[in-house]
């Protein structure tokens, strides 16, 4: 299909020239482009298909060069990018140097925040409204937050709504209700939204208002007052929307999120309402592509697929086993063997491959939704009661629960095990999702044990160790193909590393799954005549100071390797240990991520840029070997 209309859209200004049938045709063309993208690479898909009409209606109603727009979580940003001048670059989405799969202020004036974590949109939109008012930049400027029903239960959303009465005369929250997070949503808020959506009295009211809006133009205050009075009368005695109303929001909806004409009418109406408004829009995740609507979990971020019209004829699925699979299998084994073990995740059931565990152990599986703070505090309560909870979560998302790791877990010295997926670079998901700060933010806590498996054989053993340890433990592993290093595997002992080989010239000390690359780099260097040893650190905390300080003393140089931020990370811990012991650390080089945010790209591409691939390690060792000879 040719993009006859989409190719003419240079900015949202062009939407005003189109008729309603042309806007509907534009939606069809946008979905075709989304399908073509996923034929080339894995990308967020079903969520983007679901907001096409909503995005068109928002940009046709508001001027977001003046008004403010925040997309919560941000992975549904693709239609927005298509309408804001980035159609010609769209085939670069999620490739190194190309468009980011999330909002990016460096790309466009229409992207205000780089949003990749859920729940902050209402707060930032409210802050924008307050700041604009205080700066007196533009009276009448609207601030709009679009948030999904999966992200809506995040605690910070209600913190923002609780403070919405002030500085929010032109504040609109669009609740995009598609009955899904990545997996089906959970919890009381989901039930509440279901009741709003299916209440027959409220549905009838919605249709009545739609009929009135279809017949009566929005003529100003008298019409608006009539509609408001009618709505209040219809809602008398109903619970629908009252929670939002009681918090100070004018609740409007629910309305069909795939009807562009209806969306525009409601958006124009709520533009004229003074005070904060919550517009409840019902959409279908994967709308317009039947396989995605039938299985929105699979098509949230599917692998590449080939399609014929509205059918998937083949899907490229990786046959390789990832660390995520190894972790899931290890968790399942622990649940089977110990009735005290539970597993908790914050809306990452699918991402962490926990579906089988959810089905096999429903009484000991807890999906809390996108509520990481609650998840960690909840796990602390279970641990205090004598259970052995596993919090299985992405590294970058655990940051959202930082205070509860401190207060409820570490301070109490409770046996909560944190299994951190996506520890390190998250590839095309980019800087919002790279899990590179966990070493630094976890090792500072007393009582906390921090481990990183060198390969797939370490991971199950580390989980077993953690669940038997009387205190909090963390096991972090990457989004990568699981690798097994041939060796006689040493048992996991608290604070003990594993010496794979000892070298007289130098030593590579790896903390984490870059160990196999260290082994390969050492082999190449040995072929060049350099005797380089390799140590699998295993523990960031407590550190194996005996072995590591021996390496610093005896080897001509030591290179620490970590897929994490250097500030406060493993290399920092090594240098600190040397300083505390009075050992000269001038021949220690730290390889990791320097003080900057890493952009998106394939993991191997990013590792090469950072000098964390085999070639980079070899080059660092050669340089240090040359320097030591000159000295």
Distance between the termini: 67 Å
Number of helices: 24
Q: What is the structural class?
A: alpha/beta
| CATH structural architecture of the largest domain | 3-Layer(aba) Sandwich
Q: Class of the largest domain in CATH?
A: Alpha Beta
Helix content: 25-40%
Describe, in short, the structure shown.
By secondary structure, the protein is an alpha/beta fold. The chain folds into three domains: 6-290, Rossmann fold (3-Layer(aba) Sandwich); 323-476, 3-Layer(aba) Sandwich (Rossmann fold), CATH 3.40.50; 498-630, Rossmann fold, CATH 3.40.50.
Polypeptide structure, described:
The protein is α/β, with parallel strands linked by helices. The protein folds into 3 domains: 285 residues, Rossmann fold, CATH 3.40.50; 154 residues, Thiamin diphosphate (ThDP)-binding fold, Pyr/PP domains (Rossmann fold); 133 residues, Rossmann fold (3-Layer(aba) Sandwich). 39% of the residues lie in helices and 16% in strands. It contains 24 helices and 19 strands. The strands form 4 sheets. Strands 9-8-10-11-13-12-17 form a 7-stranded mixed β-sheet, with helices on both faces. The chain has a 5-stranded parallel β-sheet with strand order 1-2-3-5-4, sandwiched between helices. The longest helix is centred in the N-terminal third of the chain and has 19 residues. It is globular.
Structural descriptors:
631 residues, alpha/beta, Rossmann fold, 3 domains, 5-stranded parallel beta sheet, 16% strand
């Amino acid at each position: 299909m040719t993009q006859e209309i989409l190719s003419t859209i240079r900015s949202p200004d062009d939407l005003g020239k189109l008729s309603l049938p042309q806007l509907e045709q534009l939606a069809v063309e946008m979905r075709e482009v989304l399908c073509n993208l996923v034929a080339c690479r894995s990308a967020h898909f079903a969520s983007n298909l679901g907001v096409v009409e909503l995005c068109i209606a928002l940009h046709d109603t508001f001027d977001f060069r003046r008004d403010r727009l925040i997309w919560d979580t941000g992975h549904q940003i693709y239609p927005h990018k298509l309408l804001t001048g980035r159609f010609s670059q769209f085939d670069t989405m999620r490739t190194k140097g190309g468009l980011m799969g999330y909002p990016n202020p460096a790309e466009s004036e229409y992207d205000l925040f780089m949003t990749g974590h859920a729940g902050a949109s209402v707060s930032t939109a409210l802050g924008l409204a307050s700041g604009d008012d205080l700066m007196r930049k533009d009276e009448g400027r609207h601030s709009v937050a679009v948030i999904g029903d999966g992200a809506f239960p995040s605690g910070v959303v209600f913190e923002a709504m609780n403070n919405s009465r002030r500085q929010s005369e032109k504040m609109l929250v669009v609740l995009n209700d598609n009955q899904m997070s990545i997996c089906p949503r959970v919890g009381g808020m989901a039930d509440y939204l279901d009741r709003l959506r299916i209440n027959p009295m409220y549905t009838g009211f919605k249709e009545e208002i739609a009929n009135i809006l279809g017949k009566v133009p929005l003529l100003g205050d008298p019409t608006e007052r009539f509609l408001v009075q009618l709505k209040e009368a219809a809602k008398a005695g109903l619970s629908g929307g009252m929670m939002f109303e009681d918090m100070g929001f004018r609740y409007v909806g629910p309305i069909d999120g795939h009807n562009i004409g209806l969306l525009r009418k409601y958006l124009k109406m709520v533009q004229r309402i003074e005070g904060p408004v919550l517009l409840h829009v019902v959409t279908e995740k994967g709308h317009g592509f039947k396989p995605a609507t039938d299985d929105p979990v699979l098509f949230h971020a599917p692998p590449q697929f080939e399609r014929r019209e509205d059918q998937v004829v083949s899907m490229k699925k990786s046959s390789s086993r990832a660390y995520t699979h190894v972790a899931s299998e290890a968790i399942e084994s622990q649940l089977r063997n110990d009735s005290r073990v539970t597993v908790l995740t914050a809306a990452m059931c699918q991402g962490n491959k926990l579906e089988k565990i959810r089905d096999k152990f429903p009484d000991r599986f807890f999906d809390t939704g996108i509520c990481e703070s609650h998840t960690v505090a909840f796990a602390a309560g279970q641990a205090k009661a004598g259970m052995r909870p596993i919090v299985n979560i992405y590294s970058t998302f655990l940051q959202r629960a930082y205070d509860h790791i401190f207060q409820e877990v570490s301070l109490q010295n409770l046996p909560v095990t944190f299994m951190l997926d996506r520890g390190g670079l998250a590839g095309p998901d980019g800087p919002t999702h790279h899990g590179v700060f966990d070493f630094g933010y976890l090792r500072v806590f007393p009582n906390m044990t921090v481990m990183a498996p060198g390969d797939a054989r370490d991971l199950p053993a580390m989980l077993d160790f953690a669940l038997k340890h009387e205190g909090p433990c963390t096991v972090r592993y990457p989004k990568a193909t699981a690798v097994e290093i041939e060796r006689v595997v040493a048992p996991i002992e608290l604070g003990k590393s594993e010496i794979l080989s000892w070298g007289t010239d130098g030593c590579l000390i790896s903390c984490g799954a870059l160990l196999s690359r260290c082994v390969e780099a050492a082999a190449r260097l040995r072929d060049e005549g350099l005797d380089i040893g390799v140590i699998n650190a295993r523990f960031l905390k407590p550190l194996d100071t005996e072995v590591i300080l021996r390496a610093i003393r005896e080897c001509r140089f030591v290179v620490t390797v970590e897929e994490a931020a250097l500030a406060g990370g493993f290399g920092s811990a090594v240098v600190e240990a040397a300083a505390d012991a009075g050992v000269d650390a001038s021949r220690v080089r730290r390889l990791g991520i320097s003080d900057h945010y890493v952009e998106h790209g394939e993991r191997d591409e990013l590792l090469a840029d950072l000098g964390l691939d085999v070639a980079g390690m070899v080059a660092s060792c050669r340089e240090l070997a040359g320097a030591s000879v000159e000295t």
